[in-house]
Amino acid sequence: MEVEIKIRLFSEADMAKLELALASPLIRTEDQDNVFFDGVNKELIKQQLVFRIRIIQTTGLEPKAVVALKGNAVLVDGIAHVEEEEQLIDVDIASQIIENPNLIPEAAQNHLLLKKIVDRVPCPEGYTHMGRFRNLRHKYQWNEYEVELDRTMYPHGTAYEAEIESLNPVLAKDRLVSLLQENSIPYGNSQRNKFENMLLGSIL
Fold it and tell me: 53, 127 in Cβ contact below 8 A?
């Protein structure tokens, strides 16, 4: 179970102010291409499952690709709980799947998480794209927390969000909110996750 806080910011200027307020070194920048899949008949989403392949370009490193399966996501008062499994996948194979989702069953023969997805929720009529967005993520070390600042670029606009994964999310949220208030940075609780915002054409 992954637990993280999700705080919504409202502009590029707010993000820049928070980056200054953190007064912490930038660990790395990730340019993420996020592509979501389902069966033609929406078999996965009917079971509250989200299937994503993410290709990550990190400054100074070779690109990598990750398969993720998420389920039972709950987001309340800016604190998200979600069941998540991830596994690396060859970047070339990931790119081929993105080009043609119906290669998923073939690729699953040599990939444990893909096989689990295919076996758990059969999609007899094939696979299709659910959507796609780019996310530019800056990671900072702030006190004991790794803070992720996301600029998520949808066709309908750009979303700004601060995230912290923590075993004590209430304390982490209180500390980040205090920093925002001390620096007069407007904020709110994220009301939807990135996948939901993509699907519904919202920024909440």
Answer: no
User: How large is the greatest C-alpha to C-alpha distance in the chain, in angstroms?
Assistant: 54
What element of type H or E holds 125? none
In the beta sheet, which residues pair with residue 190? Answer: none
pLDDT, tens only, 72-130: 999 999 999 999 999 999 999 999 999 999 999 999 999 999 999 999 999 999 999 99
- What tens digit of pLDDT does each residue of 29-85 get? 999 999 999 999 999 999 999 999 999 999 889 999 999 999 999 999 999 999 999
Give the CA distances from residue 199 to residues 15, 35, 193, in Å, rounded to whole numbers and listed in that order: 24, 12, 10
Contact in structure between 127 and 41 (CB atoms under 8 Å):
no
d(CA 104, CA 120): 14
Q: Where are the alpha helices (DSSP H) in the chain?
A: 12-22, 91-99, 104-108, 112-120, 169-182, 194-200
> Residue 201: left if φ>0, alpha if ψ -120 to 50, beta else—which one?
left
Decide if 38 contacts 50 (C-beta within 8 A).
Answer: no
CA atoms of 114 and 182, how far apart (whole Å): 45
